[in-house]
Specification:
alpha+beta, five-stranded antiparallel beta sheet, His_kinase_dom, phosphoprotein
Amino acid sequence: MFKTSIRNKLIVLLLLITIVPFGTSIVITYLYTKESLKDEFVQENVNLLYQGKLNLEGYVGELKNLTLSFYNNIDFMNYLRNPSQDDDDYLAKESVKNVILTILYAEKNINRVNIAVEEDNQNVSVSKTSGVVFSPVVKNLYKESYEKAMNNSNFIYIEPMHVLQKDGAVKDKREKKEVIRLHRALIDIPSNKLLGYISLDIAPDQIIDISEKLYVKDKEEFYILSPEGELIFRSNSEVSETEEWVTSVLKSTETSGTMEWEKDSFRGLMMYDKLSESAGGWILVKRIPYTSVFESALSVAKINIMFGVIGLCLVIMATFLVSFKITSPIRVLLQNIKKVEEGNMNVYFDSLGNDEIGILGERFIQMIGKINHLINREYKLELENKTNQLKVLQSQLNPHFLYNSLQSIGTLALKNNVPQVYTLVTHLSKIMRYGMNIDEDLVPLTKEIDFTKAFLLLQKERFGDQFEYSLQFDKEVLTIEVPKMILQPIIENYFKHGFNSSDESIGQLMIMGRKESNQLVITIHDNGKGISENRLNEIYQSFDKEKQKIDTDGTNIGLRNVYFRLKLYFDGRANFHIQNHQDGGLLVILRLPIETGGGMVEGNYY
């Protein structure tokens, strides 16, 4: 009793309708916030990465332009074309010095400029710690880098970051310098003749400065990869070039993109953007852990949970208060509602008070009274309407049937004037008595079979050898009650639409009845011409119309009659199916419930 009391149910209900919305709200808010922040993070960082890409491309473009500035210097270009003739030419060497010094000091991060002249293997170099030096080219010093520059469509190659050591010996960290080396192949345009190579050693300060503006330290990671996968810049020194994500980015055919990565001890978003080949083809990669992406979402969820707990506590207090104050009158209402559910509509109880619950009790009593009145009135009206409707359906059968039957008897009498007329009249009188007796609505199946047999005998006499029929019913189904005259409209439909007396073929009609589980199954199969799909669809569509209308031309009125009578008798539990048989002709299947459960009769309702 304690577990099923109204008070406890009310408490549980109020708690549920509080916890579920609050919990759902928290979850939905968190998920929505999570996805919104994720999309916002992605867009912001894609834009930031794109801006960083433009900055780096701009910086590399400035360095590239420096390596092209000397193309307008005729003396310098002549030196490149034929350096051996200018060995003793003081003016030519001064021109070369001026060019490489101009390049050296044009940008503060350029530490060294080297020009390797292809002709006669001449080399000119200068740095900010030494003067201009003319010397032979050191073989194989930059051979691999020169080849990559020559094979590049823009004739440039940017080496990853190197560590140079003073005087070629390892001393201490203060003497180590990190540089990025840019190589350009010098082409004698428009002849495409290789004149030499220019190399710039560039301090990475500007690149590092640009990179550090593209990520948040301790929360995000940023990397610059060369097209070969070498790390030019990395915010996390523990990350190596052999990790799987590096390979994944290099294999991507897109110039930019976003992916979720959950390998190599990293769980989060990874965005990348590739510089153009003319700017070295570097790849900018930014990795943001989920903890950073969803940090704000977690904060919002915590705030929601805090307010949810406060609200829940208030609701629990209010629930107990309400449950103790109003459960008594509610119990009275529930007891009377149970009476109504059990079918007892005589409800009356003392006043429950002057508040809303008291008014509810009074309205409940009034409502039950009105329901009683409406049920009695509407139920009787509905039964009366259905009775009238069924009478009309039955009356639709007799005139047409009598017309055909009398016509058959008269024709045979005129032709033969034999005692068979008596037999035919006997069959007809049996049919008329069966059809006009409206006091019977449900009859044993054996009566329906006798009626059907009499009707078929008349048709047999009418058409002679052109028509054959068979009736096959299991003995166990003969006592089952069925709606009266349920088979005759289907059989008559065959003679109206399926049977052709002028045809040389013999018309055949087979009617069978059997029991399947708790259903009586009756099949009517003929060998007529069948029915077209369009016409079959029209018949089924006519069944769907709740309001019956009598067709003046008699089209499918018998089939509609059967359908609506079955619907009224068995309240949708019977099945009426029409189809073309696979061997030809039409097949009609009736499935009637054997236990009708006190099914509705057509005439006597009370």
